[in-house]
Amino acid sequence: MAKKYTLPRGTYDIVPEDEYKWQYIIEKFRSVAKRFDYYGIATPIFEKVEVFERSVGDESDIVQKEMYTFVDRKNRKFALRPEGTAPVVRAYVENGMNVSRQVSKLFYYGPMFRYDRPQRGRYRQFYQFGIEYIGSDHPYADAEVIAFGSLFFKELGLQNVRLEINSIGCKDCGSEYDKALIEYFKPYYQQLCSDCKKRMEKNPKRLLDCKNPTCKNLAQSAPAMLDYLDEKCENHFLKVQEYLNQMDIPFEVNARIVRGLDYYNKTAFEFIYDKLGAQNAIAGGGRYDGLVKEFGGNDTPGIGFAGGFERLILTMEEQGCSFGKLSKIDIYCVSLGESANLEISGIIMQLRKAGFIVAYDPDKTSMKAQMKAADKSDASFALILGENELKNKSVILRELKSGQQSETNQNKLIEYLTEQI
Ligand code: AMP
Fold it and tell me: Which of 138, 150, 169, 275 is the most buried (most CB within 10 A)?
């Protein structure tokens, strides 16, 4: 039979066989967040389009080409969020978090949307986890954000994830560097792709981020930002490295990391797993000291990172990491005969109220079919209610592994099972 409806391109269903993997990662993420003193925040999936245009940047690929925008019934323009930092900073300012406390350390996770060409590790609806450390410009904050990612990946059991860091300077030294880049690329102007021609004017650093082979090749010999850092930015970058060393977090300096969004300054970093191929960044982040002000808050520095669930899961699967287990069924209930079929519903409800994980299939009527399903379910016990037990106000409990069976009074059932399970 032909399928009547199919998924939008670049999206996917998270089926039960995979959903527990997501829960496992979320639990680990929350556990690391707790230890790092971060608190959860959730923002809407759509925002006014300006939230992204003004922060991520009018000229960025995300805003120019990748945003899902729509007009609502009153002609207001919205965007499905392509990333999490701008909404979190909007929420930080809107909820007066800068007033209530000096520093806000926030974590979030949820779906993001970008219109891009789908491929392995790249989707149109994808899921990110992320953190934001808002209110400190101390290099320790940079190192702590990086340390969070590093410990999170370690606790998930990942190996061979490389950390690359860079500094893209501040407004002052960044503009000196922009001039140097323009000088360097000018003679090659005609060879650049049409996007990079625009980038020359608007944001030359992003020339270094281009995927076009010619531009990429030219970028190889371009001047490096690190040679242009002013004293303040250089000291900051060196301090971040000292902290990382102190925390025992290995890293490589990669002068080519520029990050695609306009709001970044100073530290930029990525966690890379090479075997993922073209989309090999599991997570990336950086400092955004001007962003809170851009949203109408006080001049407040910040730094954060975001990572993708899909690439994380791909890597974990490839490396054979554990995802914990699907929760195991405690009791599989079996009933025989019309009266027992009714009576068992009350017993099932009591068991569930008492906290047991209980399975039952009302559509299977024969003993054989029900016991087969019980065995397959890998439950600890089968609970059997037939005509005899109904009369005796008892049930039969069969331990599925050993096959041992005993009759238990219904009054004593919860007490007995609590001891056994
Ligand atoms: P970015 O916000 O582009 O720095 O992305 C941060 C992380 O989100 C990346 O390192 C990826 O793990 C993930 N990510 C970004 N875009 C996508 C996408 N289209 N599909 C899947 N994961 C993505």
Answer: 169
pLDDT digits (tens, 9 = 90+) for 118-174: 999 999 999 999 999 999 999 999 999 999 999 999 999 999 999 999 999 998 898
State the distance from the centre of ligand 1 to the C-alpha of 306, rounded, in angstroms: 8
Q: Is 161 in the pocket of ligand 1 (CB under 6 A)?
A: no
Residue 1 predicted with pLDDT over 70:
no
Determine the distance separating the centroid of ligand 1 and the alpha carbon of 312, expressed in angstroms.
11
Q: For residues 90 and 259, what is the distance between their CA atoms, to the nearest angstrom?
A: 21
Nearest in space to 245 (alpha carbons), one of 179, 325, 165, 300 = 165
Distance 83 CA to ligand 1 centre (A): 9
pTM: 0.92
Distances (CA, A) of 86 to 50, 161, 277, 292, 323: 10, 27, 28, 9, 31
Ligand 1: atom nearest CA of 116 is 19
Which one is the CATH code of 331-420: 3.40.50.410, 3.40.50.800, 2.60.120.590, 3.30.450.40?
A: 3.40.50.800
